[in-house]
Amino acid sequence: MAKEIDIRPWKMEDLNDLVKCANNPNIASNLTDKFPFPYGMKDGINFIKLTMEKDPPEIMAISYENKNVGTIGLHPMDDIYRMNAELGYWIAEPYWGMGIASEAIVKMVKYGFETFELDRIFARPFGSNIASQRVLEKAGFNLEAHFDNTLIKNGVLESQLYYGIRKNNVLKNG
User: Fold this and answer.
1) What is the pLDDT of residue 54?
2) In what order do the strands lie in the sheet with 59-64?
3) Is pTM, for the whole model, over 0.90?
């Protein structure tokens, strides 16, 4: 039986699930420093309010068998970068390795290209986050660039990778 994976707008009723999933140092360690740890109720409320500000929504809940297990978002750029959007996502640790992230990314990319005026969606995983790199590759993204030791996270220099996918490739390949 196929997994039931969906993306949908966040609701305030999702707060408890969000905080339970997000309050994890293993998730925070793979995201920017703007993602708080510990992750509390106030952080969750602020995040859900932020997701509700945009219409159409840019940040969605990832649902697996009707349970919230993470989040995924597109952040459209502006000015000369306006045909691009950055993809960000995380999955609750108990659900790692189940193919949920790849399927959610495919759904979000389709939504992004259908909803926003974009030519390219990109993601920037840390060089040490091999799992995220594989997830992006499985979802059809290509490695575009690798910058050695350009970031610092938890006192450690990290490489930054750029993965991208183009609208014409998604439309051409279905």
Assistant:
1) 94
2) 5-9, 59-64, 67-76, 84-91, 120-123, 156-166, 142-153
3) yes
